[in-house]
């Protein structure tokens, strides 16, 4: 038995128009009360402005109907909630006070309003005027929607079959916005894998190998029989994609290893899971490019890696050196290599044995010694050796090292080269003695670096705040550990110097996606500006459950369907007979009349969806929806 959800304790107070705005703002902290408060006519406009961006669709819908919602937010909500906007009690007043306010709304909002039968008649006339047509990129769409509006053209005559109308009445020649395949393949491949298998099995894109490659790359669940067929494709790029796909059978991989195109063979080495027999063939190949590609494979065993570390081809040895976690004796072999790049790559590895770093610290090439000087966890003796290096660039690398011993940093603070002393002045692990030693320097560049050091002693803060050099003061003001009284002093004496220079890193895509994962209600606004690969980043994290992955993919796909109205894949999606109903609803509410028309014809269209489309203001859309409803009634 389904339990009725318990009513919130303050629901009545939130709905009461007599509740004060201050109390409503307080109650708005409760998530469950937001939809109720968004509908309350006593809610202040600043709160409604925030509600217009709320991730909860119910809150945004109520905001679109609230007369207190500020006009800029109201106009932005038209596209998503055209019917609710037209029901807003403020509309008659706006028409009197600002008769042409609707002209400020975006063109896509006009198309959404033309879905509504209740749209004011004079707006339909305006939408056909030169002012609207010339400033929009949807001229033909707008004109056709106006001409097919029920209040302009009337109902379709009974003698006309809505199923057989000319589609050019709905589909203009001019594109709506910019065409983009952008997110389509990734989303379809992950959300509707059966559709991808259907397309590939039917040869839907046989004349477009680039599309086939994109589908293979983005769909992890392609059937084996399809991959067998595609492995014989005449285009090498398709066979290459098949070679990389995780579902490709072993016997197909064996055939692809003999492919005449080298790039197809190289693709095999990039697979994470490769049968040992095939891997052995790759590492023993006469082709050094194949051996180089195989050298990076995660399944290689120690004897094979040892052989590759001594390969006659330098590119193979370089690839081997770039691997993490090699055995100590293999790193030792590579550290003795005659090639500078191999030794340089080894020097950049973390956690090597001391004797390997010691060997590389004596290398004839300065760049290799410089890399070693930046390593953490070396012995005191080795750090001391590097501090005496004849190259000042090596000593500079050591001066930046926050793990260098204190006495080493102190010695570098006395270095003969000014640039070394300047570099060590910014090291936050500098000993106290070195701070005061460097503070006596006459060189302003050294003092600038000291002023920005996060561990600068209080005494030096007080000394530097009276400095005559503007760059020193500016650096001091931007120091994250500056005492507030000193910062205030700098602001008073030098008002032209900004008080702070915070380095605020922009929120990364992955952090943003983590925020999405933790949302109970995911709204489209979180997805704006994100790319498919950013969504993929979060899905690859092991902490994300399968249920959450599906939720994020579905929500992102729905948002994409609503925003990318000119993606060429949309019509192909509508032709898919098994398209899930939640995606069909996005097409049924599209600003494009043809998509709404085809939604009404779709075999998966529910009765509720058909009833909604039967009220569409486009004469052709409503006619076909009503015809299908009538046919269903006859079958009952």
Automatic annotation (TrEMBL):
Residue ranges annotated for the Leucine rich repeat variant domain, each copy included: 11-66
Pfam families in alphabetical order: LRV, LRV_2
InterPro entries: ARM-like, ARM-type_fold, LRR_variant, LRV_2
Name under which the protein is recorded: Atrophin family protein
The species this protein was found in: Ktedonobacter racemifer DSM 44963
């Amino acid at each position: 038995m389904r339990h009725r959800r318990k009513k919130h304790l303050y629901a009545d107070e939130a709905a009461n128009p007599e509740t004060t705005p201050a109390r409503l703002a307080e109650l708005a902290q409760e998530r469950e009360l937001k939809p109720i408060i968004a509908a309350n006519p006593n809610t202040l406009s600043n709160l409604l402005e925030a509600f217009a961006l709320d991730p909860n669709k119910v809150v945004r819908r109520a905001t679109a109907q609230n007369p207190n919602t500020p006009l800029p937010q109201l106009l932005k909500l038209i596209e998503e909630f055209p019917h609710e906007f037209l029901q807003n009690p403020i509309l008659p007043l706006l028409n009197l006070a600002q008769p042409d306010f609707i002209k400020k709304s975006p063109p896509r909002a006009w198309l959404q309003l033309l879905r509504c039968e209740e749209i004011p008649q004079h707006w339909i006339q305006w939408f056909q005027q030169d002012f609207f047509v010339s400033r929009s990129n949807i001229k033909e769409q707008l004109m056709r929607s106006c001409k097919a509006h029920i209040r302009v053209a009337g109902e379709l005559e009974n003698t006309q079959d809505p199923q057989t109308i000319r589609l050019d009445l709905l589909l203009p020649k001019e594109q709506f916005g910019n065409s983009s395949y952008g997110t389509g393949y990734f989303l379809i491949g992950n959300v509707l894998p059966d559709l991808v298998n259907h397309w590939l099995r039917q040869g839907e894109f046989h004349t477009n190998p680039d599309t086939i490659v994109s589908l293979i790359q983005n769909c992890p669940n392609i059937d084996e029989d399809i991959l067998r067929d595609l492995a014989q494709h005449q285009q090498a790029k398709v066979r290459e994609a098949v070679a990389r796909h995780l579902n490709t059978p072993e016997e197909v991989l064996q055939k692809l290893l003999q492919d005449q195109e080298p790039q197809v063979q190289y693709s095999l080495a990039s697979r994470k899971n490769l049968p040992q027999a095939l891997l052995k063939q790759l590492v023993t190949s006469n082709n050094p490019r194949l051996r180089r590609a195989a050298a990076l494979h995660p399944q290689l065993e120690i004897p094979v890696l040892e052989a590759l570390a001594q390969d006659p081809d330098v590119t193979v040895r370089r690839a081997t050196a770039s691997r993490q976690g090699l055995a100590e004796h293999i790193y030792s072999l590579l550290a003795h290599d005659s090639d500078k790049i191999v030794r340089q790559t080894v020097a950049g590895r973390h956690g090597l044995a001391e004797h390997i770093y010691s060997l590389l610290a004596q290398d004839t090439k300065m760049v290799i010694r410089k890399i070693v000087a930046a390593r953490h966890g070396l012995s005191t003796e080795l750090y001391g050796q590097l501090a005496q290096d004849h190259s000042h660039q090596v000593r500079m690398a050591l001066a930046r090292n926050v793990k260098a011993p204190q006495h080493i940093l102190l010695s570098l603070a006395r270095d003969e080269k000014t640039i070394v002393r300047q570099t060590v002045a910014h090291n936050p692990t500098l000993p106290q003695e070195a701070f005061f030693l460097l503070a006596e320097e006459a060189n302003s560049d050294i003092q600038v670096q000291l002023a920005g050091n996060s561990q600068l002693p209080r005494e030096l803060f007080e000394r530097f705040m009276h400095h005559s050099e503007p760059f020193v003061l500016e650096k001091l003001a931007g120091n994250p550990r500056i005492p507030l009284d000193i910062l205030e002093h700098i602001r008073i004496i030098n008002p032209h110097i900004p008080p702070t220079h915070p380095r605020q890193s922009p929120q990364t895509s992955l952090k943003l996606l983590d925020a999405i994962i933790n949302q109970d209600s995911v709204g489209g606004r979180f997805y704006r500006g994100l790319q498919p690969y950013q969504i993929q980043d979060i899905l690859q994290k092991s902490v994300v459950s399968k249920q959450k992955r599906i939720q994020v993919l579905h929500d992102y796909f729905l948002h994409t369907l609503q925003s990318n109205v000119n993606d060429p894949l949309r019509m192909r999606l509508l032709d898919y007979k098994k398209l899930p109903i939640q995606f069909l609803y996005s097409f049924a509410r599209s600003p494009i009349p043809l998509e709404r028309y085809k939604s009404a014809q779709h075999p998966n269209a529910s009765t509720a969806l058909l009833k909604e489309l039967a009220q569409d203001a486009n004469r052709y859309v409503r006619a076909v929806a009503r015809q299908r409803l009538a046919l269903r009634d006859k079958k009952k």
